[in-house]
Amino acid sequence: MIFRELTLLQIKTKQKFQDNLARVIAELEKSKKGSIILTPELALSGFCYQNMDEASEFSKHATEQLLHASRDRTIITTMIEKKNHKFYNNLKVFSNGELIHKQSKHKLFMLGEEHLHFAAGDVGEIIPFRLNGMNCGALVCFELRFIELWHRLQGVDVLFVPAQWAQARKEHFETLSRALAIANQCFVVACNAASLHMAKSSAIISPYGKVIQDDSKEIITAEIDIAEVEKMRKYIDVGLKECTK
Question: In CATH, what number is assigned to the domain containing residue 198?
Answer without folding.
Answer: 3.60.110.10
